[in-house]
Amino acid sequence: SARFQQPHGVSAAEFEKWDDAYAAAMREVYRDYPDDHDVMALTVEALMMRTVRRLWNLKTGAPAPNSDVIEALEICERSIRL
User: What is the pLDDT of residue 53?
Assistant: First the structure.
């Protein structure tokens, strides 16, 4: 608890911009290196971190709006097949 006593110096909106930018950058890296398992893992993480705790609609089971969960799952499945 002592570790997080001070509020972040960056707003939640700014963190979201960073997450979006990182996910976009990792998509480009994945396009350049589609068979690299490390790149796949980092891309999946980046996509999921964009909408942390908002990946699925809990009532319908469908992907949540603005979620990249299906894209992330496709990359995971492709990685397993390689």
Answer: 85
Listed residue (24, 53, 19) closest to 69, CA to CA: 53
Residue 39 three-state SS = helix
Question: What does the alpha-carbon distance between residue 73 and residue 50 come to, in Å, rounded to a whole number?
Answer: 14
Spatial contact of 53 and 66, defined as CB atoms under 8 Å apart: no
Which residues, given as ranges, of the chain have pLDDT below 70? 1-8
Which residues, other chains included, contact 54 with Cβ-Cβ below 8 Å and sequence gap of 6+?
64, 66, 67
Tell me which residue of 12, 16, 79 sits closest to 43, measured CA to CA: 79
Whether the Cβ atoms of residue 52 and residue 36 lie closer than 8 Å to each other: no
pTM of the model: 0.83
Alpha carbon distance 8, 56 (integer Å): 27
